[in-house]
């Protein structure tokens, strides 16, 4: 297997699953700050030009949650076998996919990357993040894991984005959400999470937010 990887929340959640399953895999780093996601070679793997993507023999999968579901179904692990429990897991997995992930991405964009200060956009997305974390807080206040008693890919998905909460909330991080914070502490003790963090630390990506990076990340703004 080959994982196309940048140290993004979406790539990290897939790395956690690969390590949880102890599956051997190679890594092809894609430096999105340099625009490598737009190369013809990578677009042949993921036409959407986003990381992560996974090539598993003759199977190519892109989008982090598609990869999580593919691997979980293929290996029969970290996904409930019983349909009603799987429905619970899928509901929380999709909450991360359609709520926490895009709201976090937009909040980070307007807080840190936007070329102008837009208070309305900041308020819109930060408030949606707070609302979504409160939903997660209520769930994790009564359940060890999102799907119930068993650890699943939904938890890996949540960890990927909750690890970036400080980039939105600042020094207070997840202090307003103690159950989510408890969950993150439990996740940090898992060897697979520690291995994923070591993978991240083992790759150096461009960090400067210069004109090249802005054009690579936000090509729609290049001519504006």
What key phrases describe this protein's structure?
alpha+beta; 2 domains; four-stranded mixed sheet
Please tell me about this protein's structure.
Helix 1 (9-20) crosses helix 9. The chain folds into two domains: 2-77 and 196-221, Glutaredoxin; 83-189, Glutathione S-transferase Yfyf (Class Pi), Chain A, domain 2, CATH 1.20.1050.10. It has helices at residues 9-20, 40-43, 64-75, 83-113, 119-140, 153-162, 166-169, 178-188, 191-201, 211-217, and strands spanning 2-5, 26-29, 53-56, 59-62. It is built from ten helices and four strands. Strand 3 (53-56) and strand 4 form a beta hairpin. The mean pLDDT is 96. With 224 residues, it is an alpha+beta fold. The termini are far apart.
Briefly, what is this?
With 224 residues, this protein is of the alpha+beta class. The longest helix has 31 residues.
- Label the structural class: alpha+beta
**How much β-strand is present in the residues?**
5-15%
Total beta-strand segments: 4
What's the level 1 CATH class of the largest domain?
Mainly Alpha
Number of helical segments with 4 or more residues: 10
Low-confidence stretches: none
Ends distance:
40 Å
Integer average pLDDT: 96
Shape annotation: globular
Largest sheet: 4 strands, mixed
CATH architectural designation of the largest domain: Up-down Bundle
CATH fold-level name of the largest domain: Glutathione S-transferase Yfyf (Class Pi), Chain A, domain 2
């Amino acid at each position: 297997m080959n994982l196309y990887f940048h140290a993004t929340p979406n790539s990290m959640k897939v790395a956690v699953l690969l390590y949880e399953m102890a599956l051997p895999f190679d890594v092809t780093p894609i430096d999105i700050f340099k625009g490598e996601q737009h190369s013809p070679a990578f677009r042949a793997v993921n036409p959407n030009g986003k990381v992560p993507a996974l090539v598993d023999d003759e199977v190519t999968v892109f989008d982090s949650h598609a990869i999580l579901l593919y691997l979980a179904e293929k290996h029969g692990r970290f996904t409930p076998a019983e349909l009603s429990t799987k429905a619970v897991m899928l509901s929380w997995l999709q909450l991360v996919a359609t709520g926490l992930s895009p709201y976090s991405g937009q909040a980070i964009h307007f807080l840190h990357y936007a070329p102008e200060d837009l208070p309305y956009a900041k308020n819109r997305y930060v408030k949606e993040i707070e609302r979504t974390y409160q939903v997660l807080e209520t769930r994790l206040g009564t359940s060890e894991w999102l799907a119930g008693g068993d650890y699943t890919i939904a938890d890996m998905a949540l960890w990927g984005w909750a690890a970036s909460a400080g980039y939105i909330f600042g020094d207070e991080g997840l202090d307003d959400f103690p159950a989510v914070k408890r969950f993150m502490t439990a996740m940090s003790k898992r060897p697979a999470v520690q291995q994923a963090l070591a993978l991240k630390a083992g790759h150096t990506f461009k960090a400067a937010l210069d004109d090249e990076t802005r054009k690579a990340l936000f090509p729609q703004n290049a001519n504006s």
